[in-house]
Structure formats: C-alpha cells, structure tokens
Structure prediction request, 108 residues.
Amino acid sequence: MVLKPVHIVLLFGTLLALALPACQDNDYSGKDGKVDGSKVYASNCVSCHGEAGDAGAGGAKNLKVSTMSRAEVIAIVTQGKGAMMPFSSLLNEAEREAVADYVISLRD
Ligand code: HEC
Prediction:
C-alpha cells in the first residue's frame, strides 16, 4: 500500500491524540475546567483509603466516619499525619480544597 499524504496526516493526528494526555499527568480538571476532587482522590488517596474511603490500608483512617471539618481535612492533606505523607508539594491549594470536598462527600 502506498501512503498518501492524507494517511500520514491521519496517522500523525492519532499519535498526537494518544500522546497528549500522557503529557498532562497532573491534570485533575473536570469538564467545567475546575479541579475535580474525585480525580485527585483517585490518583493520590485510593491506595490507602480505598475507593469508598474505608479501606484502612496501613492504618489509614476511615474517611466515611471522619468528623473533621473541611479546614481540618485540608490541614491533614497539606501537612500529613503519622503514616500519611504531606501533600503540600504534590497538590496545589485548589487541588487540596477539591479533594477535601470530595472526601467529605464520601461520608454517609
Ligand atoms: C500512605 C497512605 C495514605 C495516603 C496515600 C493517604 N492517606 Fe490519609 N491517612 C492515612 C493514615 C495512616 C491516616 C491516619 C493518621 C493518624 O491519625 O495517625 C490518615 C488520615 C487521614 C485523614 C484524617 C481522618 C480522621 O478523621 O482522622 C484524612 C482527612 C485523610 N487521611 C485524607 C486523605 C486524602 C484526601 C488523601 C489524598 C490526598 C490521603 N488521605 C492519602 C494514610 C494515607
């Protein structure tokens, strides 16, 4: 088969479409352009706290029964506590606020 220019354009476009998302590994924005807390949670918290917040891996607190205020949750995420590492250098302020709101939404 002879590659016509149109094929090359299609091929290049497909490769670009595949490569672009890989470059934005820290893009947690949702459809509205705001930070999507569920994405921040899925990438940074699920390993210990689990999808529902109650996995408790390595002594992680059950987020479904947590009574912390929003400000306290943001402080824990920022500074860390015990076995939980600080996220101050991993997540920006908007990302920490969004994940705090998401964690609070996991409560029953
Ligand atoms: C390495 C495992 C680990 C990861 C990753 C982790 N946590 Fe934790 N988390 C813990 C542990 C362990 C505790 C209990 C700390 C303590 O009280 O000593 C905890 C406690 C908490 C608490 C306090 C709950 C309470 O009521 O006491 C919150 C809120 C929390 N984590 C949110 C998050 C969020 C949000 C993320 C993701 C940005 C996250 N955690 C990522 C292990 C983890």
